[in-house]
Write a structure and sequence with these properties.
Structural class: alpha/beta
Order of helices and strands: HEHHEEEHEHHEEHH
Radius of gyration: 17 Å
Helix content: 25-40%
Oligomer: single chain
Length: 228
């Protein structure tokens, strides 16, 4: 396939949009330069029809090695929080806004996470949109600013709008009816990094946000979204 590393992911999307076909095609993606240093593409994990989609920023070091999202420390905290609110992992589909690990090396060995650029986020977004259409979730939980801004726009601020149920902007043209409801919260890694005396409160707020999202599938018809 004739493509350049800056062309974006759209040209790599297969005609068959089933999850397994998308995952196979994503393994060959060179839509941005991140594929060059990453170990592999880290696609989403879960089943079509999962009512809750969890979207993070990008794979971390352990995810890049394992080829699975949310298997590192942040993933373990996420699993603990989901268990606390009674969300069965089988009811979730877990993925990231960017499918390759972006990093810099410290002392030649240790790989340090780097935030993906807006260009890289936009280049990778076709995979995320295709995943949403294949999974057909009832609620999408954006974990962190990168995931939230990938779907809700660069003006979205978690500090002001976290925990609110909202809808995707019209610029995100999904072939779904009804479209999923969206809620944004912090990334679990932010809770892990909080070593202050407010750590327990930060974790509780994170759990509370997940509890709101977890209630959406059972109460979809009466769910109130921001601006309604």
């Amino acid at each position: 396939m004739d493509a350049t590393p800056t062309a974006g992911a759209a040209r790599y999307l297969p005609d068959d949009r089933a999850l397994d076909s998308l995952q196979t095609a994503a393994g060959r993606c060179q839509g941005c330069a991140l594929f060059e240093a990453a170990t592999q593409t880290v696609f989403g994990h879960g089943r079509s029809g999962a009512p809750i989609m969890l979207v993070g920023e990008q794979p971390g070091n352990q995810e890049d090695r394992a080829g699975m999202p949310f298997v590192g420390p942040a993933g373990r905290l996420l699993t603990r929080a989901l268990d606390e609110v009674g969300i069965d992992p089988a009811l979730t589909y877990r993925t990231n806004a960017v499918k390759h690990f972006k990093f810099t090396r410290k002392h030649g060995k240790r790989r340090i996470h780097q935030k993906p650029s807006r260009t890289e986020i936009v280049a990778c977004r076709p995979w995320l949109i295709a995943e949403i259409e294949a999974v057909r979730p009832q609620v999408i939980v954006c974990l962190g600013a990168t995931a939230a801004q990938a779907l809700l726009g660069t003006a979205f601020r978690i500090s002001a709008q976290r925990g609110q149920l909202t809808q995707l902007p019209s610029a995100i043209d999904l072939q779904l009816a009804p479209e999923p409801i969206v809620l944004a919260t912090v990334h679990p890694s932010a809770v892990l990094r909080d070593r202050s005396d407010r750590h327990d409160e930060a974790y509780k707020l994170f759990v509370d946000d997940l509890r709101v999202a977890g209630a959406v599938p059972s109460g979809r018809r009466t769910t109130q979204v921001a601006g309604r």
